[in-house]
Structure formats: structure tokens, C-alpha cells
Amino acid sequence: MRRQAKNRTSFTRRALLIGTGQAAIFAAITARLYHLQVAEHGKYALMAKQNSISERLEAPERGIITDRFGTTLAGNQQHWRALFMKAMAPDPDAVLENFYRLVPLSDTEKARITQDLSEHPGYIPVLLKDWLDWPDMAAIEVNTPNLPGVIVEEGASRTYPLGPLAAHVVGYVGRPNQKEAKENAVLALPGMRVGRTGAEDAEDTALRGQPGFVQTETNVHGEVVRVVAQDPGTPGQTVALGLDAGLQQIAMQALGNNTGAAVMLDATNGEILAMASTPSFDPTLFDKGVPSDTWKSWMTDPRHPLVNKAAAGLFAPGSTFKPTVAMAALKCGALTPETIHDCPGYFKLGNHIFWCDGHIAHGRLTVTGALQVSCDVFFYKTALDTGVDNIHAMASIMGLGVDLHSDFPHTQSGQVPDLVWAKQRGIHWVQGDTVVQGIGQGYLQLTPLALATMIARIGTGTNITPHIARRIGGALQPASIPGAPQPLDVNFAHLAVVRQGLFEVVNTPNGTGYGARLTIPNVQMAGKTGTAQVHNNTATEKAAGYNDMDMAWAQRPNALFVAYAPVENPRYAAAVVVEHGNFGAQSAAPIAHDMMTYALLHDPAGRDKPLANPPPMPPLTSPKVPAL
Amino acid sequence: MIEPGSLSLHRPFRERSFGIARKLMRVNWLFVLCVCMLAGVGYAALYSAAGGSPEPYAQSQIIRFCGALVLMLCIAMVDIRFIAKFSWPAWLLGVLLLLAVMKFGHVGLGAKRWMSVGGVEIQPSELMKLFLAMAMGSYFKRATPEQTGNLLFVLPAVVAILIPVGLILKEPNLGTAVITGTIGATVMLGAGVRWWWFAIVVAIIAVCAPIIYEHLHAYQKARIDIFLNPGADPLGAGYNIIQSKIALGSGGFFGQGYLHGTQNQLNFLPEKQTDFVFTIIAEEFGFFGSIGVIGLLVTIVGLAYYTALSCSHVYGRLVALGIATNFFLYCFVNLSMVMGLIPVGGVPLPLISYGGSALTAVMLGFGVLMSIHVHRDVEFPETEDL
């Protein structure tokens, strides 16, 4: 007990001593504080007034997008805008009142400004109005004393010189949404844009750049006296696409008023040379804000102008699928190059009759001949002998129904069914399903981009993958380096048989694509037509002697054409889909013909500088279709 | 049946534990009030730091504080003898966490200090300060004056201090290492270890200071150099100190008015919501407001000493002394740094600065302190019953 008491006294003494020491230090801090805050107040108040240097982040300029030859596809245009820094205004609400009186704004805009102001710290400038015109500018300049904290500065907006002609492939930008701005503070800066579709989306990181800053000296009222230091930041990098702006325009012109899509690839490395989708839209509207009636008309248009039909539009491939079926049959032995099937004009499976197109009896055909005249009966039989799983496996090799891992955003893989696919979806697969898959109908769904990949792979025998970016900041992208693609996992003797068939389609009078043969000397194209029904003709329609041309637009078959050229050493591969264009040979093949002619004359593939003196381009052959 | 007088605050409790209601009454509510007032000041300062908006700092900080307050009161209800049993396990846990942060922690501002446990960011060195005070209290709770005068008896305690201090130095975090060592030393001093031994250690450190300086990291040297001559690079590393002093000095006696401090609102001080939060109060409320806040801080330290002095058992006295010193050192280092008295180091102003790690650590310590206060009359067993 005594020991404890003694301990306690000792502790109390020491604790009081330590405590006194700490209290003394607190007293010293307070004394120092008095010295700083009261005794030297005058000196520091003066420094604060003369002060001071404040820092503000500035949005970097977004990188430009060009085609392979340097033609600007997406650029920046300077304009004036009004910003507001709440921290600089003694009475922010009064300043806003004054501003609204000078520059009237809609209620929704006012609500956005109020929300932005409440969400960001006072030193982050909030956008009041973009695209100031001269009367606005003048009104703000004259009233500067009533508008402390309002800054007028130059900003950049996005322009698209080709406008609707390259809207889908180049894409568009939009203001960051609240979630994005929260995750990345840089995006909260006024003027920052985020790529939403196409190349703007694919290469958004490279295009965005690093923010800069401005250090300004301000007086006590927060008015800028002078700029002390400025760092423009790192502007976004220039992205050169594989696209050829000239070819792109030809593709759009050739598609004309049709609804559809056309893709052209460099068949040796997969660079996208042209990617057209119609109808199109004006991409600059997204930067300024889309008027609500325009938006409404886009949303209600049955032809879906905002959808990039080349990369995300899903279509039954029709007869353009036959080369893949032929490759599968040759591989599994269901077919040899010499195998002959007889076509009486129909094919009977059980009680069901599958007709050849137009009920024509083609007679005795080899696989080459069947491709040439696009005999359906031959491929009904072949598909049945090959089996749906073998067809699926070959389709995957050709890049159909699989994820191509392209750098182009929002691409669809489509579907090429096999038995596993059917089982997963609870579909009872019957032989008739395999039969129609042999001619590219049934459950098949593919994009024009995938079809172009397929025909390029058949033409070159390499596993090319479509990609959009050719150079970023001048550096050639790995996928564009010549010789990057690997040989396809197929028998090249089989490939030669199929290529012969595709050659005959375009270059023999009996071929379905003879009308689209090239008219320029010394070069030939190989291709395949396709006509895919989108409507099951009912018995009554058949009895009435239906005619596809007479049907309502939305029920007419889709027209397709795939091609590569030159035949000996393929460099260009194209796929064209014209929605409800009836026959592939009639409406899709001429479009491919025009694109191929332009490509062969200008030869953009592998070049960074255009040909000095390209031969003149013959007039377009693709028929002009009146608007809906 | 409630006996008459059983609700008396002064009825001593010795052997048996007491009910929650009685415990709650024995909590030092003046202390809790001061802590809440300080958190209120913090809310006002963070609201101003965001330019007059509860987002993004004030709102989330006050929510964290409320959680920590509940945690503190829960710990206060736990018998201090039960807590004492975990002194050494806590010390060991702290050391393991420090080792873990070296291996798995992420790097922030050039040092590995932080790690994430189940989504919660923790800074083990903050917890280590409390755990070290508890371990020291446990080691010396039955020490006789003969033992505290015996170097061989004191040596293990010195090792127990040096292990975490060394690990924190390795992070590297010089400031926290010095604070941790100081807390350990203060508890030893309170336990009765000879005062002139400390004098010798301090003398040795003073002599070795130039050698230590040579072995510092580049950024630590830079801080000391800038502290000695802040005008050398006014837009670079000395910027914070100069702007901080201007903010304090332009406050004057009554300040520039809430939300009207030019230094604060025009954002001359980056990251002012964390270490430099005091400048906001000083600029907008002046010297008047500053001494108000310092008064609150002193009251809290003083009440912690009151708990230490009124406690009947050695463990409580020593741990309370350690917690009081910890809080004092936070305030001292932060305020001196803001005023340009010592080199800048990332030490927040407790309960006011934005950030969860220091807040949680401080409130955990206050929980233990309140448990000591509630159980100040209990008797520790004479022998270890582990």
C-alpha cells in the first residue's frame, strides 16, 4: 500500500511536470500566433492584397483525327465562352442575376449551372454559356464591373469537315457525364470532351491529352492582374486512321439514298479504308447539343441513322456465306473439288421442298460452278453432308460469329449457330435448319465488317483483323506493320478451289456478279453476291405469284456483295449490304464495283502519301435509288 | 432491488463490474462535448475549404466522425482490465501491420504508409502509437522504484519502443517515428525511469543530428532546407509555408469573415483541407478564432491529464499519459508546421483535418482513455492472470 502511494506521488509529480511542459509549448504557439496574426497583421494583409498567384487548370486541346493522307476528319474550332468562378464573386447569386439579364438562358441551362456550382469547389470554373456571339460578348465586356468572377475565354469545339460523310466511322464526342466527371477530376474542366462512338471513342485516351495550367496574379477582389506562368498542357495526339477520305466519299455517294453499309479493308493487314453507313447524321450537333426535334426524328426514323450498320448492323449473309460452307465441306471431306451434284431446281427433305432461287434447274454442277451461279440446291446438300458444327468451325476461322478484337468500338460479333448454341437457347435443331444455314439464312446474323474480314481472309489466306487506327502521334500501329497477320489454318488447295469459283462469279457471263466486273484494264475482281430474305413468304403470297419488287420496302430482301481485288494478289476487300435492295447483283455489286475501281486507281493501301497523278475515275455505275 | 445510493457517481467500484447505465454516467461528458465541438469546427472549416459546400469534404468527414464517436463510446464501456490484457497482443499486431504495409502497402507521396484492409484505408503507424502506449503501460504497471532504476529491467521496454520506431523510419516517415518514440519515452518517464537517462539520450541525439541529416531521404532534406529558407523558391517547395503564413497573418484579430478568406477561397493553398486546415480557421476567424480552437485542444489535453491523475491504477495512469501526449504531439507538430516553426511533415490537425485514418486512430485512443476514466477506481490483480 505504501509503495503504491509513493508510486502515485512520483507519477503525479512527473505527470504535472510533463503537462506543464506541454502547456508551455501551447503558450509559445499561441504567442507566435499572436505575433503572426495581430502584431504582423499589417505586413501579411498587404501581402495577401498584393497576392497573389493562383492556379487554374485548363483543358488540353483534343487531338485531331485525320485520314491516312492527313486530311482532317475531326478538328477543333476556336470559339468564345463565358465561365464563372464562384470564389471570385462576393455575391455569386447577384452576379448570376446580372448575367442572366444580359445573356438570357433557358431554365434547364440555369438549373445545370446551379447544380454545377453546388457540386464543384469554388475555384473550378463553371461553364455559363458556350458559343458566345458578338452581342453577348459586347454586353459582358461593358458590364465587367457588375460581373466579378465571370471570365470570357477562348474554347475549342469539335468540327467534322466531312460531316455526315464519315459520321459513323469517325464518331462524335460529348460532354462527360456526372459519373465520369466524378471519377476523373480532369473531365470536370469546361471544354473537356469524351469520345462516344467510332474513332473518337476507340482512341479517346490518346486524343484527350494532359491538362495545362494558368498561374495568374490577382488582386484582393479576385481580378486578374497578369498571367504569371502558363503551361498549355499536352495536347492530345494526332490519330491518323487507315481511312482514305476520297474512298470514303465514293462509298457514301455510291450508297446514295439506299439504307445500308459498305466497308473496304486493306486485305493484307485489315486497315479500314472506308466504312460507310446510311442514312447518316451531322456529328457536330453532339458537341453543341442536339436540338430536341432532330433527336426525336433520329429516334423515330425506321432506318436508324445513328446506328453504324457497318460495325453493329446484323444481317443474314445470304449467299455470301457459301464460300465458307464450301471451305467447311472440302475440309471435312463432304465435298471434293470434283464432286458433282445435280440441281433439278428444288431439294426435298422429308416432306418439305427447298427451292433453288427462282426455281431454276442448274443441272450438274461442281463446287466452283455452284458458286458461280449461286446454286442453292448444291449448298442445301453440301450443308447437310457437312453438318452445322463443321460449318461453325470454319466460320470461326473466317472471322464470322466471333469477337474479332478489333480496336473499333461497339462492334457486334453476330452469330453462326452450332448445336451447342442451339442447346443453350433451347432451340430444337432440325435438319432443315442446317439446310438453310448452307445458303446463309436461318439464324445467321453477321455484320458487314465481319463479311469484309471473311472475304479478305479468303483472298489473302491470312488472319487479318479489321482496325481503324494507323498512326498515333506518327507511330505506325503494330497491326498496320506489313506482314503482321499469320497464315490461316486452312488447306490452301481448298482455298484455290473457292477462289476460282469467286473469280467466275464476276468474270464469266454466267456468273451472278458479271455485271459488276471491273472496266479498268489489266485487273480483275473476285466476289460473291447475296440476297437474303427478311420475310417468310406466306402460302397466299406464293399462290398470288409474289414478286419481291412489289412488296413493301421493309419486306424486300437485303442485297449483299463481297469482293476482293486484284485476283492474283488481293489488296482490297469489300463488303456491301443494301437493306431491302432486292438482289445483291442488282444493287450491292455496283457499289462494290465503284469502290473497288476507285481503290485500284488510287491505290491507297500501305501509303501515307496519295498517288501523284491517279488516272481519272470513271462515272459511278451504282444506280441512284429515290429516297423513301 | 436498487439499493439506495447505488446510483451515486462517487460510489467506488472495486471488485465487481458495473452496469452500462452507471458506466455511461461515469463517462467524462465534458470531454466528449469538447471532442464534438472540435469536430463541429472541423465541419465549418471543411465546408469553407470547398468554397461553401458540404461536398466533397465536410459531409463525408462528419459521417466518419459520428461512426468514430459511437466506436469510442463502445470502447469506453469495456472494462479497462480486459483491454489491458490485450496490450501486448495489440503491440504485436501493430508491428505485424507495419511489416505488412512495407510488403503490401501502396506508395503515397514517396512513402509506403497506407494499406487497405477490407476496403478501409489504414495507416498502421497511427495505430502503433496507441498500441505502444498500452504496451508500455502494461510493462510498467507493477514496476517497483528499484526496478525502474535498473537498466536491465528497462532495456526490454526500450527494445519494444525501438522496433516500431525503426519500422516507421523505414517507411519512411521521420515525423511519425519521432512522435512514436516520444510517446514511448514519455510513458517511461511517467513510470519512474530515471530522468537523467533521458537527458543523456537527448544529448546523444543532438550531437548526432548532422549525421542523421546526411542519411535522410532527399524529400526530407528538402523540407528542412525549405524550412530554413522558404523564400528561396517561392513558387516551388517553399510555396506552402509562405502562403500558409500569409493566410494566418491576413486574418488579423477577428478574421476576414466566414467564407470570405481570400487565401482560402482563391485556392492559394493546395490540399488545404488536410494538413493546412488550420489556416482556414485562422484566416476567416482571426486570432480570436485561433485561440478558441487552441483553447479546445488544450482543454482536451488537460482533461486527459485529469483522467491520468485521478486514476487509481498504474496501467490507466500511464496509458492516459501516453494518449494525452499523442494528442498533444499531433496538435504541436501540425500547428508549428502551419506557422513555419518546424519543417513540414504530413501530420494532420486531429478531428479537424479531412481524412479518416488519423481520425479513427485518435478516436480509438479516446475510447481507451474514456474506459480508463470510467474504470478509474477498479483494482488490478496483484499477479498476472493470463
From TrEMBL, chain A:
One Pfam family named in its UniProt record: Transpeptidase
Membrane topology, as annotated: Single-pass membrane protein
GO terms, biological process: cell division; cell wall organization; peptidoglycan biosynthetic process; proteolysis; regulation of cell shape
Ranges of compositional bias, category Pro residues: 612-621
Domain called Penicillin-binding protein transpeptidase: residue spans: 260-596
Main location, first listed in the record: membrane
Places the protein is found: Cell membrane; Membrane
SUPFAM superfamilies membership: beta-lactamase/transpeptidase-like, Penicillin binding protein dimerisation domain
A GO term, aspect molecular function: peptidoglycan L,D-transpeptidase activity
Spans annotated as Disordered: 606-628
Gene3D superfamilies linked to this entry: DD-peptidase/beta-lactamase superfamily (3.40.710.10), Penicillin-binding protein 2a (Domain 2) (3.90.1310.10)
Protein name from the UniProt record: Cell division/elongation transpeptidase FtsI/penicillin-binding protein
Organism for this UniProt entry: Acidocella aminolytica 101 = DSM 11237
TrEMBL record, chain B:
Catalytic activity: [GlcNAc-(1->4)-Mur2Ac(oyl-L-Ala-gamma-D-Glu-L-Lys-D-Ala-D-Ala)](n)-di-trans,octa-cis-undecaprenyl diphosphate + beta-D-GlcNAc-(1->4)-Mur2Ac(oyl-L-Ala-gamma-D-Glu-L-Lys-D-Ala-D-Ala)-di-trans,octa-cis-undecaprenyl diphosphate = [GlcNAc-(1->4)-Mur2Ac(oyl-L-Ala-gamma-D-Glu-L-Lys-D-Ala-D-Ala)](n+1)-di-trans,octa-cis-undecaprenyl diphosphate + di-trans,octa-cis-undecaprenyl diphosphate + H(+)
One annotated GO biological process: peptidoglycan biosynthetic process
Transmembrane segment boundaries: 29-50, 62-84, 90-109, 151-169, 195-213, 285-306, 318-344, 351-372
Top enzyme class: transferase
Superkingdom assignment: Bacteria
Keywords recorded for this protein, A-Z: Cell inner membrane, Cell membrane, Cell shape, Cell wall biogenesis/degradation, Glycosyltransferase, Membrane, Peptidoglycan synthesis, Transferase, Transmembrane, Transmembrane helix
A Gene Ontology term for the protein's cellular component: plasma membrane
GO MF annotation terms: lipid-linked peptidoglycan transporter activity; peptidoglycan glycosyltransferase activity
Compartments (UniProt record): Cell inner membrane; Membrane
UniProt family annotation: Belongs to the SEDS family. MrdB/RodA subfamily.
Annotated protein name in UniProt: Peptidoglycan glycosyltransferase MrdB
Species for this entry: Acidocella aminolytica 101 = DSM 11237
